What does this fold into?
Amino acid sequence: MIVARTVADLRAVLRERSGSIGLVPTMGALHEGHATLLRSARKTDDTVVMTIFVNPAQFNEPSDLAAYPRTEEADLALAASEGVDVVFAPDAGEVYPAGFATTVSVTGPLAETLEGAERGRAHFDGVATVVTKLLLAALPDHAYFGAKDAQQVAVIRRFVADLGIPVTIVVCPTSRDTDGLARSSRNIRLSPEERAQALAIPHALQEVTDAAASGIADTEALRARALATLEASGIHPEYVAFVDPITFAPVTAVARPVLVAIAARVGRTRLIDNTVLGGA
Ligand code: AMP
It folds into this structure.
């Protein structure tokens, strides 16, 4: 496995290889969720490139950026064990050289609601700009992202289509611990009590799924059930939203696929999770 620190080195390595390229962007602190993306890429592509870059531009809270776990040695070991061919792990100066003045910005509700509203405009601008740079650096055939970050996926699909970037976006299902909690690099910051409390999030999503399956279509009624489950565990969510999975426009009745997205702080840790109702 080769570790490239510069775009020039990454391109030099990729020029030597033939066949398809799969790109798996990450911020490191790898867990089983990231491994599922790597396995998907390994199955499909001849060369698997994983990136590790904790992107300062997408963090709205300096304390969150400072506390973000950095575990490069373990990440490289996991990447090697999953058969990654190339790890691209640049420093911030490589990604944002002096004079950097360009932003890729998706406008409208897709980028401005939910995560965009809670974390601020700059969050998805930061994501869109860095993912554009990573796609241009590796020029992959496929790029792999997790369904856990559903709004991120929708934003990426939007600018990839709008800019005509020649890549196929592959979305992998959310990987969960055996108790149902969505895997996240931030979970290690939860105390045992907080981790138990956090289970109310997947429980609320399950409650909504069951209620929708039993015929309740009104999203306000479904939302009330989710809120009751969360609040019974002392969780006051930032949002419990029912939206179109592509445009993120609000949905009032479950008639076609609806994304149910939850964001909540448990202690100091901010968690997100989602599920899709009505097919898809
Ligand atoms: P991150 O390192 O948190 O930026 O995540 C890198 C990629 O892994 C993103 O596409 C995430 O959506 C994806 N990912 C993170 N956690 C999970 C999970 N539990 N299941 C599936 N994909 C995930």
In short: The mean pLDDT is 97. The chain has two domains: 2-172, 185-274. Residues 26-27, 33-34, 36-37, 145-146, 148-149, 172, 174-175, 182-185 surround adenosine monophosphate (CB under 6 Å).
